[in-house]
Amino acid sequence: MSSINGAEVKKICLACEAGAGSSLMVKNGLVKKAKKAGLDVEIVHAPATQIPADSDIVVCHTGLAAAAKAAAPENAVVIQFMMFMNDPALKKLITDLSEGNEITST
Question: 4, 12, 15, 16: which is the annotated catalytic residue?
Answer without folding.
Answer: 16
